[in-house]
Structures are given as C-alpha cells and as structure tokens.
C-alpha cells in the first residue's frame, strides 16, 4: 500500500508539490491496477504517464534548484538520471510480453520498486530542498 500524502511532505506549496502529488497519484494508480494480463496495457498507460510527468518534474525541479543555487544540485541531477533510467527499465520489463516471468510477478515487483523509488528520493533528496526554498519564499 502506498503511503498517503501528508501536509508535512510539502516543499513549496506550488509547482513542485503539484508535481509530487501527481507522481504520487500515478504510482497509487499503478499499484491499484490488477496484475492480470488483461490489465498490462492499462498499467503501461499509467507508467507512460508517470514517465512524461517525471521528465517534466525533474526539469522543473532542476530549474528551481539552479535559480536558488542549491548546493546539492549535481548530486540531485545524478539521482534524477538514475531514477529515470530505473523507471525506463521497469517500463521495459512490464512491456516484455515474451518473458520468463508472468506479468503478475513483474507487476508486483514494479509496485514495490516504484514506491521505494519515489519515497526514498523524496525523503532523502527532495525534502532537503525545502529548507533552501524557505529562504527565497516571501512571507
């Protein structure tokens, strides 16, 4: 089960939070999609939407980081590249209709990885950004 979004998880009360909510919702939709073969295309549609949204979000987040001279930007960009690579690998595995593993198995593993993918990066990297953004936000 995916963690529910909480107010304490907000970073900027703006575009970044909106992006994170959308990513979170897409992951929830993917996890809620049944692991039956008939649902493979529906699951892929959600993953494709997640990839499109993630690419937009990473670009937005990196622009914000550059604008405030976020000191961890290089590390953060490297994490984004690795996360996108992992997401692409998950999509390839879900797309693979000729595989030693059935879709249900691949889907269950993807459910776990996606939740970890989002929450680990968010907790360890994105939340660091909140402290820097608060310095640039009018009160």
Keywords:
4 helices, 139 residues, mainly alpha
Task: Outline the secondary-structure elements.
Layout: H1 15-32, H2 40-67, H3 73-95, H4 103-134
Short description:
The protein has 139 residues and is mainly α. The chain has helices spanning 15-32, 40-67, 73-95, 103-134. Helix 1 (15-32) runs antiparallel to helix 4.
Molecular structure report:
The chain contains 4 helices and no strands. The chain has helices spanning 15-32, 40-67, 73-95, 103-134. The longest helix has 32 residues, at 103-134. The termini are far apart.
The dominant shape is elongated
DSSP, total strands: 0
* Average residue pLDDT: 89
Gyration radius, in Å: 16 Å
Beta fraction: under 5%
